[in-house]
Amino acid sequence: MSIIEAATRSDHDQLLIDRVFRKGDFVETEPAVGGRTPHSLGGLVRNLRQQVGMSQRMLAEQSGLSMRTLREIEQDRVLRPRAVSLQRLAEVLNEPQLRTHAHIGGSLLTFSPDETSEFGIRLLGPFAALRGSVELDIGTPQQRHLLALLALNANQAVQRDEIVDVLWGEEPPYSFQQLVHTHVSRLRGFLDRHRSAALGAPSIIRRSEGYQLCIDQDQVDLLQFQELSAAAALARQHGDVPSEHRTLSRAVQMYTGELLEGFGERLRAHPSVADYYRMHLSATLRLADLAICAGQYDEAIPWLRQVQRGHPLHEGLHSRLMVALAASGQQVAALAVYTKLESTLRKEFGIEPSAELRAAHLSVLGQGASSWPPGPAARLTQRQVSASPSLLPRDPEDFVGRSEHHPVLSRLTKSRATSPLGLASVVSLYGPTAAGKSVLAIRTAHASRPHFPDGQLYVDLRGHTPEPLSAQAALSHFLQALSVAEKDVPRTLSGCVALYRSLLADRRTLIVLDNVTDEEHARPLLPGGFNSAVLLTSREPLAALEDARHFRIPSFTTEQARELLARITGQHRTAAEPAAADEIVELCEALPLAVRIVGLRLAMRPHWTLSHMAQRLRDEDHRLDALSQGALAVRPRLEGSFAALTPGDRRALHDLARAVDGGFSTAMAMAALNCSAQRADSLLERLTDQQVIEPTDARDGTYDFAPLIRLHAMEPQP
Fold first, then answer.
1. Would you say 2 and 218 are in contact if contact means Cβ atoms under 8 Å apart?
2. Which runs of E-coded beta strand occur in 581-716?
3. How far apart are CA 371 and CA 378, in angstroms?
4. Across 313-330, average pLDDT
5. Which of 89, 139, 183, 235 has its CA 20 to 30 A from that of 403?
């Protein structure tokens, strides 16, 4: 029997269960006579929490309780808190006295589930392991998080690094490997206690460097939802509309709350959570389409309202809601939906409503749904909708690993579905000129392709060049890659943005924007919704870009630069002349582009020794001339950095480069420029923002030039 079906039990047992569990984590009753006292259970929990310096939210997250449950306990509105809840609080607060309270009430709180009841895991809504209708005590908060993570990826291996990230974040304890093993062992014991030869129970097995929860499909509600979604898709493929309608209704009805409700961001930002929200939204929209086409408008409205709060900017969802409301006689409510969304799009994001949303608005004004949706979006054929372009450049074979790769990839593939605005994930890479931002972005994009099955779009916007690519030209390129005929591409920027976002609204697409000039250059190219993600590179941080995570990409370390040189020229050549290889890296200041150019020059000239190449680079006056090979050259990249500076800042940088050699302090800059401390501070901050100098120690105010910037700044100024 499925865990989403009601269990059959005696009237007496059901009454007992209802009394204990009817409010979720507690039984609600009137406060004790006299109200809260210093010696009450609520007072004890509150005092313990305050003694350890924890907020209510922190305690709720670490104990796995909801904020409402904890608040009710602390305010003594709970007569008999569940033993499981008190045990969790005792673990987090390290207070054995709470365990004593957990046993007050006798058998009512230590109720044992019927041994014939089926074991199941609930992920949709408040997380729980169940036997029938009874929630089981999983153990510590870490064990709850671990079981939730394994259930979220049921019957698939979860790597140990992923487990560590969910349990402890970026600061795991020293003994994290042993702790993971301990938590897994305890979970195995917990599952063994609920194993039944007749009904079965899950088990945890070791898979390579991770662990896998093996469990039947009907024992996890999320797996049942996925099965129903797949069955609906199959029915649609065979043209069986009634069967598709029934199956989608069952799937959507399983939505009883947010996935993993009560857990923190580390777990709820998992890519599998994004998969669920995407599937649930797609199922809801398709169900609404079927209901609207069948004239069953009253059926579509509650499903659309249910997901509306989580997707306040999804134009396709609001279009359907408007049509259903108007057709059911609620035209004023339909117009209110349009007015609110249209105002938000214009005022907060500076964009026009999509063609689909405008078409729905016109349909509402006409008091009919038959004309919806007209416009460019309606003319797209099935071939166009199913296009999955892959525009990524070739993944470089000589890529040298760097520490920023994993956090960038992790951030890019994690869900933003829990964002209140439902915005797409935006990851921004910035740093000095020619530091390898584009190469890292391309490698990361290739690594994340399985997370974006609907396509990968790439464009070089040529920022800080004499002829940057406009946002409208980039959008036209993207739309044609999405199989929009050239004649159907709108002629205005707003029209391109509207069609672009309509096409990507329900798709999982990665957009890579290379060499962005500023925020306004990138903003029209950001998709709506939360399914897609954006990875962009720029020289300076785009601080005003909404909901973006910024990663500074520095130049290579000496070891990384030496490895790149060896990969291009050949390990045997660098091994034969290690001192010359080290000198080349030093003269290139470990700048990836410079090292790559030197490596290519040596690869094209096998008769050159590394010592000969190092000798050519020693001359500072001609070093930048030597750092050129074919279309690759360092000087044009550096000139692009200087182009964004004002004439006054360029002159100051020139004077500073000639006056100091290597690192310098604010006082040295004041002396070199003969200016006040305030003017020197302002200048150094501007140059830092433009990535031409970089702080070496924020505490004592020292700086250094970005790689090879000093050489270029010393050259005569125009």
1. yes
2. 628-629, 632-633, 664-665, 693-697, 702-705
3. 10
4. 87
5. 183
Q: What is the 3-state secondary structure (H, E, C) of 341-402?
A: HHHHHHHHHCCCCCHHHHHHHHHHHCCCCCCCCCCHHHHCCHHHHCCCCECCCCCCCCCCCC
Q: The sheet that has 548-552: what strands, in order across it?
A: 456-460, 510-516, 533-538, 425-430, 548-552
Contact 102, 83 (CB under 8 A): yes
Question: pLDDT per residue over 564-610, tens digit each?
Answer: 999 899 889 999 999 999 999 999 988 899 999 999 999 889 899 99
Pairing mode, strands 510-516 and 456-460:
parallel
Interatomic CA distance for residues 501 and 466, integer angstroms: 29
Distance CA 624, CA 594 (A): 9
Cα angle 87, 88, 89 (rounded to 5 degrees) comes to 90
Structure-token pair, residue 572: 């045997």
Sheet holding 157-159, edge to edge: 157-159, 210-214, 203-207
Q: How far apart are CA 357 and CA 364, in angstroms?
A: 11
Other beta carbons within 10 angstroms of residue 305's beta carbon come to 12
CA–CA gap between residue 246 and residue 364 (Å, rounded): 28
Q: Which residues contact 389 (CB under 8 A, 6 or more apart)?
A: 455, 456, 457, 481, 482
**HSE value, Cβ hemisphere, 13 Å, CA-based, for 93:** 26
pTM of structure: 0.50
What is the rounded CA–CA span in Å between residue 301 and residue 324?
Answer: 6
CB 419 within 8 A of CB 473: no
Residue 26 CA to residue 681 CA, distance in Å, equals 59
Q: Cβ contacts of residue 475 below 8 Å, gap of 6+? A: 493, 496, 497, 500, 524, 525
**What is the percentage of the chain residues whose pLDDT exceeds 70?**
83
Exposed e or buried b per residue across 550-588, where buried means at least 16 C-beta atoms within 10 angstroms of its C-beta: ebebbbbeeebbbbbbbbbbeeebbeebeebbbbbbebb
